[in-house]
Amino acid sequence: MTRFSTKLDRHFRTLYAGQQQARDALCATALGGQDKALADYIVARRGRYCLIEFKASEAAFRSEARKELRLALCKTISQQKNPLRWARSAHFIGWGTTITQSLAGIGMADVESIALASYPGAVCPLLGVPIQAPENRVDADHFIEMFLESKLLGSSAARFEKYLALLFMLAGSCSADALKSIEGSVYVYVPSEDFRLPELHSVRFRGLEQLFLLTVGREMRARAMEKHGPEIERDRPMGRHGGMRL
Question: Could you tell me the superkingdom of the organism this chain comes from (predicted)?
Answer without folding.
Answer: Bacteria
